[in-house]
Structure formats: C-alpha cells, structure tokens
Specification:
With 466 residues, this protein is an alpha+beta fold. The protein contains 11 helices and 20 strands. It folds into 3 domains: 122 residues, no CATH class; 156 residues, 2-enoyl-CoA Hydratase, Chain A, domain 1, CATH 3.90.226; 90 residues, Beta Barrel (Lipocalin), CATH 2.40.128.50. It is 29% helix and 23% strand. Helix 4 packs across helix 5 and helix 7 packs parallel to helix 8.
Length: 466
C-alpha cells in the first residue's frame, strides 16, 4: 500500500494527485472525471490531462500493468467472488489483446476503470496514472491538506438562529479536529443546524465519528465498522463523549445531500439518518461505501482497490451501490431552502412565546416568498391588491402604508422618507435608495393580506392589512 486506508476520496489528495497550487505532481486519469464521482479536481490542472495524452505506452507496459492489476485485485478486493471475476476479466482482456490499440497512459487508465466498473459496479475502484514517479512507501499527509480548513468551507447563522455548515470533505481527523471544534463552537448556541453535504466527497471515517460525537451525548457508541478482507479483521469507529462542548442530541439537525455526496460524505449522512439524529433533504447520493487504498501497478500506474466493506451496526448493511435515500426528496439546488423552512417550522411548533413565534413565522414567510419567486409558482398580485395600511400581526410597532403615485408603489412610514418599491420577482420588492436586503414581500393567506418588512440586521416582521 502507498498510504493509509480510507474512503477513496482522500486517496488522490494524500498521494498528491490533487493539490491547491500550480505544482501538481500527480493527476487522476480521465476515468475519475465522471459526473457521479466525488473526488475533487483542482481546476488549475484542468489542462494537464490533455498535455499528458502524448505519454505513450507500449505492449510491454500494458502487459506489466495488466498482470499486476489482475494479481492485486484477486488478492485484495473486498469481496472474494467479485475479486476473482475482476481478475478473470483482466486476464481475458489481455489474452484477447483488447487494449492493443491504446497508446497513451491516461486513456489506458480510463478504459481499465470502465471495464472494472462493468464487473464490480464499485465507484471506489479506479485506475490512475501519475505524471511523476510515485512516492516510495507511505507518503504521509501532504502540506496541501493542512490548508483545507478541515474540509469545512463555510459556517454561518441563517435567519431564525439556524446554524449552517458547508463541508466538501472529511479530512483526516488529525487535520480536521481543530476546524470541526471551531465550527461547532460557533454554532453551539443556534437552535437548529443544517449540514450541507451536497459536495462532500468523503474522507476519514474517524472524522465522521467526530461529527456524530458533536451531535450526540453520553457514553461512546459504535457508529460504523469496516470489515477488512485481510485477516477477517473488523475495525470499529466510535463516538467520543464531548460533554458540554457537544451540540447535543436534542436540537433539530438537517443534512443536505446530492449526487456529489460520496463515500465518507455519504457515511455522515447515512449514520445520522440511521440514528434518527437528522433529517436528510436533497437527492440520492453516489453510492460508494467500500474503503480501501492505493496499490502501485508499475510504470506510474496506481489502482485504488476497496479491500473492505462498511457495515453499519444498526442496519447490518451500507449505502454501497444504492446511495443514501433522502427523507425529503428535493432537487439538490433547492435543498437548503427546504431544510431551512423545515427547521423554522420545527422550531415554531415548540415555541410558546407569541413574540418569538412571530419572529419565526416572519422567517418562514421570507423563505416562502423567495422560493415562490424563484420557482415562478405564484402569481404577481396587482398593485390595487397591495394598497393599504399594515400593522404588526403580534406586538406593537410602526404602521406601513402602501400607496400608489403615478402607477408606482410607494412605502410610507411616518417620520421616514417615502421609498419607491422596485419590483424584483414573485411578490417581492426592494426599497429604492436602501442597501440590498431591504425588501418588502406580500402574500394573501387565508383571506388576509400580509406584508413582510425585511430591514437587516433587525428581525423581519409580518404586518397585516387593516
């Protein structure tokens, strides 16, 4: 093995296949660039594959690679029956000279990966070609990984005190721990949490267990197991009792998924779903569960071979080949909006204080009118329907008057300058002369005409037409 065993999304990173700067010693073959794979690719190296098309191979190289590939698959692949089938196919292709017309290394890697997938249907099984000599022995963790902020690209607080974390990887736990700790410290006092896994390509199961730890409490428990072919060894991944640092097990959690959710990103989604700790919102994920690591084939070719199977201790199975099925199926592009609305609805249902509930209802109306506007699912209300005086639905506050002058809608509030309302979309208008975000939305709800006044950073408020 060239490196530690993990979900395959980390393999190119750990071997240097993908970096963050311009000097990229290795590059995934074209085989990795399929729509449903989740291994990230640095756009700075996009032209490297084309430049490498001139790297030619001959019959000797092809034979050496095929002989080694068949032998390694036979002895290492996670499921022995499939391992034998894979090896047999490789040897039969060699006997039939099926690859004799392939002259370049990247093309050879691409075709081999396709042929292996046709047998195993395993998205972790990839052949790569390196443009530089492979590292001798375990390469360790390249410096690039230390600049990736633990695989977390964004943490913020959404309207309604809902936390949001966007993950694009679950990096090795020794690199991710500080970033994960900081992210949960920032979101600690939110009332609900959304974890955006839509582009999470995977990584280290120990880091997955760390995330689950923050969403748990009490004694440690097993969240996942790897059943390795070699020695019939079982490896367990457990939570850690984080005490008061944990987000806890009671506040609502939502996980967003999409076709780009793969491998360890899928495990995080799957584990939280199985534990009934989170609601999964989005699309079915990629379907890659079997862990493994890179194996050299000679002549600067490498194959990532899954040599174990992920087995969840609750279900006795995994997401291999089927993906994680969302609890709330929606297109990935709309998953955040839907999850945010679900979070607000959940919080509103358990909020007794009328003023606090009114603030949550205002957030729900904002999200609703944005979604309707973007989807085109609502008809625009005529100006005449919007005119009138609007007072707060709950509590006190200013009255907002909507007037019409020369065919233009005008917002009037006593003591403030009048503002023309500029149409945006749906039933949403911006206030002329004010910064972005100062928006007024309208809707009719159960015979009532309502106005939502958005004036960041103050909470939005719903007003009812009198």
């Amino acid at each position: 093995m060239l490196g530690r065993r993990c979900y395959a999304a980390l393999v190119p990173l750990m071997m240097g296949f993908i970096g963050l700067g311009g000097a990229i010693p290795l590059q995934p073959s074209l085989a990795a660039q399929t729509p449903d794979q989740a291994i990230p690719r640095d756009p700075l190296t996009a032209g490297t594959v084309r430049a490498a098309d001139s790297i030619e191979i001959d019959s000797r190289v092809r034979k050496d690679v095929l002989d080694t590939l068949a032998r390694e698959l036979e002895s290492r692949y996670a499921i022995p029956d499939i391992a034998n089938k894979l090896a047999a196919v490789v040897r039969e292709k060699e006997r039939a000279s099926a690859y004799k017309n392939i002259r370049t290394a990247p093309e050879f890697a691409r075709v081999l990966t396709e042929d292996l997938f046709a047998v195993a249907h395993d998205k972790h099984l990839h052949v790569y070609f390196s443009f530089a000599p492979l590292p001798q022995g375990p390469p360790g963790l390249p410096p690039e990984l230390r600049r990736m902020n633990g695989g977390i690209s964004e943490v913020r607080i959404l309207d309604g005190n809902v936390g949001y974390m966007k993950l694009y990887n679950v990096l090795p736990v020794e690199l991710a721990r500080d970033a994960v700790t900081a992210a949960f410290a920032f979101a600690h006092n939110t009332d609900a949490l959304i974890i955006d896994n839509r582009d999470n390509g995977g990584g280290d199961p120990n880091t997955v267990a760390l995330y689950v730890s923050y969403l748990s409490e009490g004694k440690p428990y097993v969240v996942n197991t790897f059943h390795w072919r070699e020695g019939n060894r079982v490896e367990q991944f457990k939570t850690t009792d984080l005490g008061e640092l944990a987000y806890g097990s009671r506040k609502p959690v939502f996980v967003l998924t999409g076709q780009g959710t793969f491998s360890g990103g899928e495990e995080l989604s799957y584990d939280l779903q199985v534990l009934k700790r989170a609601l999964i919102v989005g699309e079915v994920t990629g379907g890659g569960a079997n862990p493994g690591g890179p194996v050299p084939l000679g002549h600067q070719f490498v194959v990532n071979i899954p040599s174990g199977q992920a087995i969840n201790p609750v279900t006795g199975t995994s997401w291999e080949g089927v993906g994680v099925k969302p609890d709330i199926p929606v297109p990935a592009a709309g998953a955040l909006s839907r999850a945010h609305r679900l979070a607000i609805e959940r919080l509103s249902a358990v909020t007794a204080d009328p003023l606090s509930r009114a603030m949550l209802d205002a957030v729900a109306m904002k999200l609703e009118t944005i979604e309707q506007a973007e989807s085109g699912s609502v008809s625009r209300l005529a100006n005449a329907e919007l005119l009138g005086n609007y007072t707060p639905a709950v509590g006190g506050g200013t009255t907002v008057h909507i007037l019409e002058k020369d065919g233009r809608l005008i917002r009037h509030i006593d003591g403030l300058a009048d503002r023309e309302l500029i149409y945006l979309n749906g039933n949403r208008y911006r206030s002329a002369g004010l910064p972005d975000g100062f928006v007024i939305s309208f809707r009719t709800d159960q015979g009532k005409s309502e106005l939502l006044l958005e004036e960041p950073p103050r909470p939005s408020t719903i007003r009812v037409k009198q």
